[in-house]
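Re: zinc ion structure - here you go.
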Amino acid sequence: MDVQTGKIIGFKLVKKLMVQGDLERYACGSLLNELVNEENCKIDIFLTDRHKGIRCDMRINHSNIEHEFDIWHISKSLMKRMKTLDKKYPDAFLWKTSISNHLWWSAQTCHGDGDLLVKKFTSILKHISNIHEWVEDGELIKCEHAPLSNDEQRNKLWINQNSESYFALKKIITAKDCIKDLAHAKHFIHTGRLESYHNVRLKYMPKRIHLKYNGMYIRSILAIIDHNSNLNKNPIGEKVVYSKSLRKYTIKTRFEPTKSEWRRVLLENIQTAIRNGVPVVCEQFTYSNKNAPKNIAPVTKPDLDDLKAKRFSRFSSNK
Ligand SMILES: [Zn+2]
């Protein structure tokens, strides 16, 4: 997806056994190569999840492109770690939502500076211990929130810097891998629009329906046309929706209804092509499914009669 326009500009559909090894790494690497070398796209920043193989491929083959991680993925993994505090350190666990909000705020306000992002985020350790002003490397640093009222001071469950809860929380907040990845979220690009594309994709490829490679390929294209045709919908009001993650009703923006004009245009184009004798059958598509195996089984499909014969011989030997 091109972040500026929200358009899906390319996709790779890879099936197990189609390639040896890491599927995500292969799909991501080959798509990036196509975009850069064949489509002449100038890519400055490439946003992905934190998949190890993709990171490795980016470092080796695309070192000129800045590799950025989605803050949503970082937040999700941080919250998973926070969950481990739930039983043993409930006082630290209570800060979960504040820490998540602080992470998003830090990424949003660091202006593309990775060091500043890390500094802002880890400063939460001061705040939760009721320290809102401190000296770091000879510099006076303050929390950016408004001064706290006496009531706020009294009612917050501050964490003592000498408590076990504090050390458990500090271990999570300052974990080396978390800090290293956090600096890769400095541009605050997140993939909310990609989520909406995935929802459209589910409409064409419901998970409960088994689809063959070709079917998935064509349906991917339809999902992309649908998504790209419905970008920049105007807001027309607000609605109240129940949020599963927040466990409460929240206000969301209501947008114009989805347009499906593209389907009529597509059908008309097909009809015109048929009338003009232009071939429109699927075999004419040049999609790269040559390597797609028929199924994901690692062994060759046996003959039905052979399998039946084996089944009966096994029954007879059990007698
Ligand atoms: Zn503070």
